């Protein structure tokens, strides 16, 4: 049955006051406001229209959302088409982005919550691929979490129909500074090495989405920003989070040297040392450490250097579902979000983003990886 079209929302239905700006870039602005009728709080994602390509990008995102409705994909409340305002009106997610939940909450998530949210994202990505759509910007900042710990995959702004992707596909570029690389889309720490190696840009495939998912899965398991612990001989503790890691160095290390984020303690380092998770080989329920290490093995197989060696998303989804069902409290899903012990708090007060001479605390809910390595409209930065 065809999905009904999104509701057209008159611009006047929104309160004139912005409650909070969540994100602003050269291509879009995201903020919270309320509906005049009823006062419901909503999120507005307004596309900045400066050229025909921007209008096409707005229409494409709506088309993907329309064609790919799924319980773990973000569903808009409605659409505003009132020139010069073109915006998507979205529900508010109480716990915000998964990135903020991981790195700005100051609390450790339970193993069950981590697996449940990753399983939700895996299901969403499988659904997109089944519909012939490549997401092309999988990362924890593009995952939203509701009050019950359910996760939905968001932001299809960079997505494309798989049948239309070629090695020469480009997005409209704005020379706003930063590390520039044409013909690729994504966010640097999550980008597949084949995309970083090519001057013109390799063809984006499902395997690129799988790689990005693997980086995100490991980020959730460790609650550590990808590469924030990276140390190189001539770059001492230059981290992505602090915006001091040289982009060229990081790109080279990922693409040429096989650099990957640190994994949970006790995890095997070689991809060949761990195959697919087989619940039949383990007693039930499994302890938390075994679950985490097995999930880390899934992440490692997702980020294999060779695209052909990466585990297909349907298999990834099945393995995560099996691991989730192997937990001692299987069935509770993500309801118990945080560990009971609150004594171990993450030192987020000292985590800052240095951008244009400013220091922005992660506790202000700013998106660190959005400001450090986002490839948007054909550039990184």
TrEMBL record:
One of its GO terms (molecular function) is protein serine/threonine kinase activity. Residues 361-381 are annotated as: Disordered. Keywords: ATP-binding, Kinase, Nucleotide-binding, Transferase. SUPFAM superfamilies: Protein kinase-like (PK-like) (SSF56112). Residues 16-324 form the Protein kinase domain. PROSITE patterns: PROTEIN_KINASE_DOM (PS50011), PROTEIN_KINASE_ST (PS00108). InterPro entries: Kinase-like_dom_sf (IPR011009), Prot_kinase_dom (IPR000719), Ser/Thr_kinase_AS (IPR008271), Ser/Thr_Kinases-Pseudokinases (IPR051681). Gene3D superfamilies: Transferase(Phosphotransferase) domain 1. Coiled coil: none annotated. This is Protein kinase domain-containing protein. It comes from Haptolina brevifila.
